[in-house]
Amino acid sequence: MGNDLKTLILLRGLPGSGKSSLAKILSEDGKYPVFSVDRYFTDPITGIYEFRYQENHLAYRACESDTRSAMENVVPKIFVDNTFTMEWEMKPYFLLASEYDYTVFTMTLENRHEGENIHGITDDQMKKMALGYQVELLPERLREK
């Protein structure tokens, strides 16, 4: 792989798995952008996270829009840090990557480091998310329009 390779790195995993922490490290502390649905719900001044279910669809759109803008500006490395538990959540990013000629890498993180769930998700909600987690996502299906 040459230095001119445009890459989109999708970090997926359940809350508390370390996605945001790893994204920060891999992005070289902000040298490359990290987009996430969580960012939409985090106050940029106070850093306080406040999830609003009724706005979740707006958060997904904002994350996709930020990613598209970065690709339009030919940012060489872009990170997206979301749970991506279901195929439909990843599909827009594969379509964007195809449109803008980015190579996609997907990293699945597991909570093996006793990470904390800072979003107030209950154990029951986590179990439900884990049960619905699609492990094998076929890239060819993610590229279909």
Automatic annotation (TrEMBL):
Mention one GO molecular function.
ATP binding
Q: Which residues cross the membrane?
A: none
Matching InterPro entries: NEDD4-bd_p2, P-loop_NTPase
- Which keywords describe this protein according to UniProt? ATP-binding, Nucleotide-binding
Task: Please name one Pfam family that this protein belongs to.
Answer: AAA_33
Q: What Gene3D superfamilies does UniProt report for this protein, alphabetically?
A: P-loop containing nucleotide triphosphate hydrolases
The entry's protein name is: ATP-binding protein
